[in-house]
């Protein structure tokens, strides 16, 4: 007969296993229906929406692009702890424990159905989790109770079952049998979760798209300084290295044949475009650097790519906007996320577009397939709506976007900035000539020069790499005769309009960070 402590531990395991089985089956159902409705993802998304801005910024600063994995892991840990409580409650009162487990599943279901754009199918994963979790917990509790009863009536039955001897009754379950069932449910949960992931990955595959020759091509791309200055950021960012910061825990699986882009609101006429419609329009191709507002000084959330798409003004002209009173474009993605863009900035002549391709191929799923907005010179949270499906012309007084509701800035032009790529912070080097190098950006303005300061001395002018466009970052470098000792390096950029990178330190909230990066280097 198990001791009370061991029995409590076993029942906690029953609750955890039952919950894992229910969540795994729900994840599989969600993969086949609505991936975002998977209870763990739905709860995680709700946590993101409810998290205060300072805590979000702290998470991004601490965990970077792993913040979503940390969040999901935290949600799973909390759920499993509560599942263990459900199992313990079920030890004395099975109905209470099972009911507690169903309440947990109900919270996941509620989180799924309350998402913007949720439909009837969003109910199924959560209901599946509740039914499967409750049924499997009830099964394990019943087997455990039968095993306990059998032991009380005939202690030799359990002893025989545990030693391999022939028990008095071949139909009465032993505790070993209960554990076998528990292990089987655990294995089934692992298999179901893996199946859901496999289905999700298959759904995210993108077929090759043959883009027509752009009517307005970007031209030849210059050779960067990568070979000359080791460890400097490449002049163009490969897709796999391009930063990704957004609120999504799962990537949308969008059917390109049924996807449309609607322009409505304060326009002369509502217009709807299919993907093929956009491909048939005159396309433009541009090399543009994007920056996330969460990027700290010297941070990694900046990337440059070659984008191909339809000029934003061409699309808006088909809807007719000249006689409207709108001052913002309220963009909506396929799942209801909203981004607001100042209308006057979007159509002031810069190369704003609805991008369809990135670096010569279709947009990767994580970067907005099948279409996204790109507006040079604005931080992504007010310009780079991914998975876009609607643009509504309206006013800031009438409608607020997701980030505006959370008191972020509404205009948010990108601040001029620079970064030291090499040497790395706290790097150890040998005395002698060393290269100091990095990148600088002033999107839609352009970089005039970059300067480096060593050990608090005078600012020294660096050598700039090739210029792509004013919307694209510049590489820079400075040969340095390093002497033994500890040194402090700093860099700053100066824009073509005379703007000098601001030295005052500001956090990203609400309109982007500022300050000068300083790097400590040890030379021996």
Describe this entry's structure for a reader:
The chain has helices spanning 4-32, 39-50, 53-63, 67-92, 94-113, 123-153, 155-163, 175-203, 275-280, 312-319, 343-346, 402-405; strands at residues 260-265, 271-274, 284-291, 302-311, 328-333, 338-342, 353-358, 361-362, 372-374, 388-394, 417-422, 427-429, 432-441, 447-454, 460-461, 463-464, 474-482, 485-495, 518-523. The chain is of the alpha+beta class. The strands form 4 sheets. Strands 2-1-10-5-6 form a 5-stranded mixed beta sheet. Strands 3, 4, 7, 8 and 9 form a 5-stranded antiparallel beta sheet that branches. A 5-stranded mixed beta sheet has the order 12-19-18-14-15, with no helix packed on it. A hairpin with a 5-residue loop joins strand 1 and strand 2. Helix 6 (123-153) crosses helix 7 (155-163). The radius of gyration is 29 Å and the shape is globular. The termini are far apart. 44% of the residues are buried. The model is unreliable at 157-170 (pLDDT under 50).
Query: Quaternary arrangement of the chains shown?
Result: single chain
Instruction: Please state the average pLDDT score.
Output: 91
The N- and C-terminal alpha carbons lie at a distance of: 68 Å
Number of helices: 12
Query: What composes the largest sheet?
Result: 5 strands, mixed
Q: Beta-strand percentage?
A: 15-25%
Helix share of residues? 25-40%
- Please give the order of strands in the largest beta sheet: 2-1-10-5-6
Shape: globular
Radius of gyration: 29 Å
User: Segments where pLDDT lies below 50 for 5+ residues?
Assistant: 157-170
Number of strands: 19
The helix/strand class is: alpha+beta
């Amino acid at each position: 007969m198990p001791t009370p402590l061991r029995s409590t531990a076993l029942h906690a395991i029953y609750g955890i296993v039952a919950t894992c089985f229910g969540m795994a089956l729900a994840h599989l159902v969600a993969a086949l229906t609505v991936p975002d409705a998977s209870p763990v993802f739905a709860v995680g998304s709700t946590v993101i929406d409810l998290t205060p801005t300072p805590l979000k910024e702290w998470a991004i600063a601490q965990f970077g692009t792993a913040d979503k994995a940390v969040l999901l892991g935290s949600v799973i840990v909390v759920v499993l702890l509560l599942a263990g409580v459900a199992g313990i409650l079920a030890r004395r009162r099975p109905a209470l424990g099972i009911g507690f487990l169903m309440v947990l599943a109900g919270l996941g279901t509620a989180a799924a159905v309350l998402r913007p754009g949720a439909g009837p199918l969003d109910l199924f994963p959560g209901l599946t989790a509740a039914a499967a979790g409750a049924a499997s917990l009830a099964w394990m509790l019943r087997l455990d109770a039968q095993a306990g009863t059998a032991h009380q009536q005939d202690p030799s039955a359990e002893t025989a079952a545990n030693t391999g001897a022939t028990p008095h009754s071949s139909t009465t379950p032993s505790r070993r049998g209960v554990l076998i069932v528990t292990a089987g449910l655990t294995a089934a949960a692992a298999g179901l979760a893996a199946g859901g992931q496999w289905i999700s990955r298959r759904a995210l595959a993108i077929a090759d798209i043959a883009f027509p020759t752009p009517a307005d091509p970007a031209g030849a791309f210059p050779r960067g300084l990568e070979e000359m200055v080791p460890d400097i950021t490449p002049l163009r960012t490969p897709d796999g290295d391009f930063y990704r910061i957004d609120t999504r825990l799962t990537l949308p699986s969008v059917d390109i044949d049924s996807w449309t882009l609607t322009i409505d609101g304060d326009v002369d006429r509502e217009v709807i475009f299919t993907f093929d419609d956009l491909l048939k329009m005159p396309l433009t191709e541009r090399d543009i650097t994007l920056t996330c507002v969460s990027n700290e000084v010297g941070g990694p959330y900046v990337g440059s790519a070659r984008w191909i798409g339809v000029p934003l003004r061409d699309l808006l002209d088909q809807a007719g906007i000249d006689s409207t009173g709108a001052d913002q474009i309220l963009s909506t993605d396929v799942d209801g996320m909203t981004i607001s863009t100042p209308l006057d900035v979007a159509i002031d002549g810069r190369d704003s577009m609805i991008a369809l391709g990135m670096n010569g191929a279709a947009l990767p799923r994580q970067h907005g397939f099948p279409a996204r907005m790109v507006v040079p010179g604005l931080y992504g949270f007010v310009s780079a709506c991914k998975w876009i499906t609607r643009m509504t012309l309206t006013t800031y007084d009438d409608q607020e976007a997701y980030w505006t509701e959370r008191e972020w800035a509404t205009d948010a032009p990108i601040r001029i900035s620079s970064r030291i790529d090499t040497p790395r912070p706290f790097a150890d080097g040998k005395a002698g000539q060393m290269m100091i190098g990095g990148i600088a950006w002033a999107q839609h303005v352009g970089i005039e020069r970059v300067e480096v300061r060593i050990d608090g001395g005078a600012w020294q002018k660096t050598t700039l790499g090739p210029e792509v466009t004013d919307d694209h970052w510049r590489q820079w470098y400075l040969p340095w005769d390093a002497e033994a000792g500890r040194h402090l390096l700093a860099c700053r950029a100066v824009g073509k309009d005379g703007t000098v990178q601001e030295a005052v330190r500001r956090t990203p909230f609400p309109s982007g960070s500022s300050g000068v990066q300083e790097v400590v280097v040890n030379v021996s």
